[in-house]
Write a sequence for this structure.
């Protein structure tokens, strides 16, 4: 079970609030009990200040701007002396050009999951004020820490740098993954798609996710289905294990 980015930064009131983000917490806590501890794996988003994905690393750029190479054409006009990369940015002009050439475009997000702040913690309580100790998870994967690469997927950065997640899953003998958490249209989606591409059987637990742009949820579901990813409800998991338990009881063995 992969619990994606359930952090206060993505809850209502956080830096990059996902509408209804707090509503997934209780169902995820219930779901976690259905899985062995070592196969309950969380990801957390964590970005240093000056990260390439943050609007605040640029000058005069509104959050949610979609940055492309073409947009940069007018940025460094020597006659206008217009430096658009903030002085505290942890990437250079060259890094940015190279990155955009690989990813095509990058959404510039409001500040979120800033390293060293509360916002990068895992979330526990329904109101975002209780921390989730990391012990409930068999593994916590941190992503997005490299200043020059954003990382939606738990499996790899947006420019393709792999994380250890596929190895962590294979070491644990996992062949089938259930993905839940935040946000459906970014980190959940890309984690599910990359998991499928890496050869895992993948299901997204729909009622244990929420989208940053709720309006996009239907098109994300369609894209996931198209890739052979199952969309399920948490009660399918609760129900399956309840019926497995019942049949075990009837058969009188484990
Ligand atoms: C996420 C945007 C930026 C997510 C993280 O967790 O879905 N989205 N960083
Ligand atoms: Zn992020």
């Amino acid at each position: 079970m992969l619990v994606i980015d359930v952090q206060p930064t993505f809850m209502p009131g956080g830096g990059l609030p996902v509408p209804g983000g707090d509503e997934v917490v209780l169902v995820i806590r219930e779901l976690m009990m259905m899985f062995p501890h070592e196969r309950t794996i969380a990801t957390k988003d964590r970005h240093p200040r000056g990260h390439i994905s943050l609007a605040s690393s640029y000058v005069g750029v509104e959050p949610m701007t979609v940055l492309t190479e073409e947009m940069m054409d007018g940025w460094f006009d020597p006659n206008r002396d217009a430096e658009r990369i903030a002085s505290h940015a942890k990437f250079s002009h060259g890094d940015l050009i190279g990155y955009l050439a690989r990813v095509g475009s990058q959404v510039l997000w409001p500040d979120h999951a800033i390293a060293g702040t509360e916002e990068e913690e895992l979330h526990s309580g329904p109101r975002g004020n209780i921390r989730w100790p990391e012990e409930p998870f068999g593994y916590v994967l941190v992503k997005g820490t490299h200043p020059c690469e954003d990382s939606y997927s738990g499996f790899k950065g947006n420019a393709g740098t792999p994380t250890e997640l596929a190895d962590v899953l294979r070491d644990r003998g996992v062949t089938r993954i259930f993905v839940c958490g935040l946000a459906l249209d970014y980190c959940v989606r890309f984690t599910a798609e990359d998991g499928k591409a890496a050869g895992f059987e993948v299901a997204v637990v729909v009622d244990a996710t929420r989208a940053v742009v709720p309006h996009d949820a239907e098109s994300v579901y369609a894209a996931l289905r198209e890739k052979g990813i199952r969309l399920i409800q948490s009660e399918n998991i609760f129900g399956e294990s309840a019926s497995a338990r019942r049949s075990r009881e009837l058969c009188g063995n484990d």
